[in-house]
Each structure stands twice: as C-alpha cells, then as structure tokens.
Design a protein that fits this description.
The chain has 342 residues and is mostly beta strands. Helices cover 3% and strands 36% of the residues. The protein folds into 2 domains: 4-106, Immunoglobulins (Immunoglobulin-like), CATH 2.60.40; 135-332, no CATH class. Strands 21-20-15-16-19-18-13-12-22-23 form a 10-stranded mixed β-sheet. Strands 1, 2, 3, 5, 7 and 8 form a 6-stranded mixed β-sheet that branches. Strand 20 and strand 21 (275-283) form a beta hairpin.
C-alpha cells in the first residue's frame, strides 16, 4: 500500500533574513519516518530560515525531489530495505550549512526477486555531500542523426565518475546557453518513465558507481520515430537519468545545439534552477561563470563547443582532461555509457 504523508506546515516557517545561526534551529519533519519499499513521504522543514537561503535536499538512497523552493520534498523509498539518510543543505551567501539530517527506515522488500535479466540494484551512496567533484561531463551528443524532428528525441549527455566512491547526482542541474539558459534538474529515468525498459541498466537510481557512467536522456527518448527510434545501445549497468520537467534537454525549443555558429556550452552544477552553488563540470569552456545560470555564455575564444558533423558527439579524451579544445574529439554515432579511458 502506497502511503503519502503530507506535512505542509509552512505556517511554522519564518522566512527572515536572520543569518546562518538560524539554520541550526531548523529540523526535518516528520520525526518518525518508517516506509515500505517504493512508498513516499512528504518531508518538511520547520524553524527559521533566512529569506535569501538556497535549500538543497539529498539522499543516500531512493529519490528525493524538492518542492516549494525547497521547503518541502517528496522522498520515494528505495526498493531495498535499510536506513536511508536524508540531508538538507541550507546555503546563505552561497556558503552551505552543515547538513540537517533525518533517518528514514525502509522495511525489507517483500516483492518477488527480480528475473535474471533484471540489473542488480546500485549500492547506496555513503557520506558524500552534494559537491563531489569526481564526476565529469564525458560526452555530449548534440547533433544526432536526422533532421530536427529526430534530434529532439536522441540528444544525450554522458557523465563519468572517475572517483573511488559512488556519487549521487540526483538534484544536480545541467544548463546550456540557449535563449533563456534553461537548467534541467537530474532525476532517475523511472521518475519520468517507470514503465519503459531500456535494457539491463539502472533506471531506478541517480547514483553513479565508482568508475561508472550515467547517460542523461530526454524523457521522450523511447517515443522517437523510425528510422532513428531508440538508436543507442547502453552497456549493462549504465545509470540512465533524465530531467525532472519538460521533454527536451537544454532549451525547450532548440535543445542542445551542436553545429553551426550558435553551439551550446554546458555546465553541470549543484544549486538550484536560478543559482549556481558549485560548478561540477563544463563542456565548451564557458565564459567565467557567475552564481547565476542565466549568465552562462560561450567565451568564443576557441573552437569548442565542437562544430559537430551529423550523427556525431563530442567525447572527452580523458576524464580529468581540462575543458579545452585539445581534450575533445568527434565520435561517429556516439558511444553512450562507454569511453576509451575505462
């Protein structure tokens, strides 16, 4: 039985510019958080929060999606049992507080075991904050095969975790320099398309294992038209992500432009839709980045983003290579979920 507990207690939140000391008085409710696998609970913040605060939620398992400017969040329990730590980071003047935490206990899974073809569940992330910097933009497919009617289905951005620990990228943001510098929040594929299978891949998590890949797809990827319907093969155990809102990566109309004079740079960051707290990775050597995604621009002093030929992606030659022209190569048809530096 799916339980949705809603504690909307905004009347107890005093949004006042009272400084970072007030953050210590904030708590997460409900205090007793016990769920079954896959069930949901609405978590709320109580206490005094500075009016200029940036609020970010993260979780060591399952999915947590912020609402109401971060004052509430819907937590979906993972499919396996155990204790899950929910953390909230409240930043003032772009300086994050120590995390405010709540433990949610998930009862053991009573569902039948998965079929042999189903992928194993990812390990839960450990004590990694939202600013883990071992994740890099490793490939950008911004000029897929076909005309504009096909491109919107098949653009993707690949991420690679070259660190020694898993990293949860749920709630991170990806922004391009389109007409309005639209930012997309990353969620698991199952958050948007739970009934569409993409093979032996991870679709129920936003965690990238150490040495693993994630591929960010449009949520309408599986709805593309022949002859370019679902053109990619994803290696087993690739994490598949998508975006929390909308149907197209990047700008809602033009997507991520990969050829011609108006090519789009990309910025992966933690923060919010309208505020950058920390830049994680970039593609295209954007102009000096401010605290606002609306300011993202191509520096126009080099030849990146690459002017891609049809059916090609831009791939980073090494996961730790700087975002310079020499670090990117064109790859015919793209290689989502794999790279020469594995």
């Amino acid at each position: 039985m799916k339980i949705l507990i809603s504690f909307l207690i905004l009347s107890s939140l005093l949004l006042a510019a009272c400084g970072a000391n007030a953050v210590a008085q904030v708590d997460i409710t409900p205090g007793d958080c016990v769920l079954s696998p896959g069930e949901q609970v609405t978590l709320s913040l109580t206490g005094v929060i500075p009016s200029d605060a940036l609020i970010q939620w993260s979780t060591s398992g399952g999915v947590v999606l912020a609402q109401n400017q971060g004052l509430n969040a819907v937590f979906t329990a993972p499919p396996d049992g155990g204790d899950v730590q929910i953390s909230v980071y409240i930043s003032t003047n772009l300086t994050p507080s120590s995390p405010i935490t709540r433990i949610c206990r998930v009862a053991g899974n009573t569902d039948p075991p998965p079929t042999p073809s189903a992928p194993a569940l990812l390990p839960t992330s450990t004590s990694l904050g939202p600013n883990a910097l071992s994740v890099t933009i490793s490939e950008v497919m911004s000029n897929p095969c076909g005309n504009e009617d096909y491109k919107k289905w098949n653009e993707y951005v690949e991420l690679y975790n070259y660190g020694s620990q898993p990293v949860d990228v749920g709630g991170w943001w990806l922004a391009d320099n389109g007409p309005d510098n639209h930012a997309d929040m990353l969620v698991s594929w199952n958050d948007r398309r739970p009934n569409i299978s993409l093979g032996n891949v991870y679709t129920n998590s936003t965690i990238i294992p150490a040495g693993g890949f994630a591929v960010i797809l449009s949520p309408i990827y599986a709805e593309g038209m022949p002859p370019h319907n679902m053109p990619y093969h994803f290696p087993d155990e690739t994490t598949i992500l998508t975006i929390a809102e909308g149907d197209r990566l990047g700008d809602d109309i033009f997507g991520i432009i990969g050829d011609g004079d108006g090519r789009d740079v990309l910025v992966l960051y933690s923060g919010g839709e309208n505020a950058i707290r920390e830049v994680i990775s970039t593609y295209g050597s954007p102009l000096s980045i401010t605290n606002y995604p609306q300011d993202i621009r191509d520096n126009r002093t080099d030849l990146i983003p690459l002017d891609l030929k049809d059916c090609t992606s831009a791939e980073r030659a090494s996961p730790t290579a700087p975002d310079t022209q020499e670090s990117w190569v064109q790859v015919r048809d793209g290689t989502p979920g794999e790279a020469p530096f594995e």
